[in-house]
Design brief:
With about 110 residues, this protein is of the alpha+beta class. The chain folds into two domains: about 45 residues, no CATH class; about 60 residues, no CATH class. The chain is about 30% helix and about 5% strand. It is globular. The chain starts with a strand and ends in a 32-residue tail after the last helix. One of its GO terms (cellular component) is Golgi apparatus.
């Protein structure tokens, strides 16, 4: 799910993202801020595990699988009585971000 802010018609990026299976693009009619946008997105999500990334975040290959595995190991969904399609989160995991090592491929060191 992608949450967008701003007025006007749906943006080209939302139109493109909406073509990807299981991706929905929500658009706020006005500026709501980060937290309200995340709450709105979470309230319309159907998955039992949610993750939030900001537009400046960059992830490596296979970054999500270890977090999902940890949720399963801790039995978070089972202890909370949650199965698939539950809208009620009960725990949060905070990954440790990898350091950015420069130069990054295709970007100058000043980027």
């Amino acid at each position: 799910m992608v949450s967008r802010e701003g007025e006007g018609s749906e943006t080209e990026d939302c139109q493109l993202l909406s073509q990807i299976p299981k991706v929905r693009c929500l658009r706020n009619g006005r500026r709501e801020g980060l937290i309200r946008s995340r709450v709105r997105g979470a309230s319309t999500a159907s998955a039992s595990i949610l993750t939030f990334l900001d537009s400046h975040c960059e992830v490596n290959a296979d970054w999500l699988q270890p977090m999902i595995q940890r949720v399963k190991e801790l039995g978070i969904l089972e202890r909370a009585g949650l199965g698939d399609n539950s809208p009620a989160p009960r725990a949060a995991l905070q990954p440790v971000p990898d350091p950015i090592r420069l130069p990054r491929e295709g970007l100058p060191e000043s980027a």
